[in-house]
From TrEMBL:
This is Protein ROT1. GO terms for biological process: 'de novo' protein folding. It comes from the Eukaryota. It comes from Mycena belliarum. It is found in: Endoplasmic reticulum membrane. GO terms for molecular function: unfolded protein binding.
Length: 230
């Protein structure tokens, strides 16, 4: 007979909180992917790989954001052809009156892609995408505290982000590496992409490897999929 009151308490504890600021550092899942100097070194176009996959955002009170993402993508038809991607970018964010959020990079972002079954198996290239978050909302998790939910332009959710710090953990708020002038394009789904004219590809021996055995990678994929459903 105590089930209904208990469920009411749980739902009340998980409702959205009156918080209109995203300032702070947020990370998904096991909270190992955190923006800042511990994740990326733009001057060297290198990464320090976290122990698990995930995504992290930092937001400052003066309109800067930083993105860190580490993920593996499985291939059902070719189980051994798992693609690993590590991404870093930063720039300016704006909270719009309709409840959406726009993230505009300054142009020095980059990503490393490792695709063992591709012609070029390991390369680094520029990564600069303007992201539109259709909506965002902060909930109070009864165990972890503030939890940020972001919904992309098509309504699909980003993995829930837990607040690991009320202050932003990020690299200096300025352009951190030299890039050629960007070419701006609009994709068929309405996203704006900014990509430099030259894409830098490296052979396997030139870019640092993502040191993940296939078995471990498969486990990380399963963990990432489970985290996304939480």
């Amino acid at each position: 007979m105590f089930v209904a009151p208990l469920m009411a308490l749980v739902l009340a504890a998980s409702t959205a909180v009156a918080q209109d600021s995203v300032v702070g550092t947020w990370s998904s899942g096991s909270q190992h992917v955190i923006p800042g100097p511990g994740f990326a070194n733009p001057a060297k176009k290198s990464f320090t790989y976290p122990n698990t996959t995930g995504v992290g955002y930092s937001f400052s009170d003066d309109g800067w954001y930083e993105l860190a993402r580490y993920r593996f993508t499985s291939n059902a038809s070719e189980p051994n052809c798992i693609i690993g991607t590590v991404i870093w970018a930063h720039g300016h964010y704006e909270l719009l009156g309709n409840g959406s959020m726009v993230l505009t990079p300054v142009g020095d972002g980059y990503q490393q892609v490792q695709a063992p079954c591709a012609g070029t198996s390991n390369f680094i290239q520029n990564y600069n995408f303007t992201e539109l978050m259709k909506t965002w909302q902060i909930f109070q998790d009864p165990q972890f505290g503030p939890k940020l939910h972001l919904f992309q332009f098509d309504g699909s959710p980003v993995a829930p982000l837990f607040q690991v710090s009320p202050t932003p953990n990020m690299l200096p708020k300025q352009v951190l590496r030299n890039v050629t002038p960007p070419v701006v394009t609009i994709t068929s789904d309405g996203l704006i992409t900014t990509q430099t004219g030259t894409t830098r590809r490296r052979k396997r021996s030139a870019a640092p490897e993502m040191q993940r055995p296939i078995a471990a990678v498969a486990g990380l994929v399963a963990v990432a999929m489970f985290s996304a459903m939480l």
